[in-house]
Amino acid sequence: MEINIILAGVGGQGILTIAAVIDMAALQSGLTVRQAEVHGMSQRGGAVQSHLRIADREIYSDLIAEGTANLILSVEPLEALRYLPFLAAEGRMVTSTDPFINMAGYPTMEAILVELHRTGQPVLVNAAELAREAGSVRTSNMIMLGAAAPFTGLAPEALEAAIGRLFQAKGADIVEMNIRAFRRGKLLSQQQATAI
Amino acid sequence: MNKQLLLGAEAIALGALDAGISGVYAYPGTPSTEITEYIQKQRGSGTHAVRSAWSTNEKTACEAALGMSYAGKRSLVCMKHVGLNVAADAFINSAITGVNGGLVIAVADDPSMHSSQNEQDSRVYGKFAMVPLLEPSSQQDLYLATREAFDLSESLKLPVLLRITTRLAHSRSGVKESAARPENELHSIYAPERFVLMPHNARRQYQHLLDLQPELERRSETSWLNRLVPGTGPLGVLAFGIAFNYVMEVRRQHGLDFPVLQIGQYPLPRKKIEALFSQCDSVLVAEEGYPVYEELLRGFFGGRNIRGRLDGALPRTGELNADSLSRALGLAKKEVLTVPDIVVNRPPELCKGCGHRDLYEALTTVMNLQEEHHVFSDIGCYTLGALPPFNAIHTCVDMGASITMAKGAADAGLRPAVAVIGDSTFTHSGMTGLLDAVNDRTPICVIISDNDTTAMTGGQNSAANGSRILAICRGLGVEENHIRTIVPLKSHLAENIAVLSEEIAYDGVSVVIAERECIESAARKKRNPAAKA
Ligand SMILES: Cc1ncc(C[n+]2csc(CCOP(=O)(O)OP(=O)(O)O)c2C)c(N)n1
Question: How far apart are CA A53 and CA A44, in angstroms?
Answer without folding.
Answer: 25
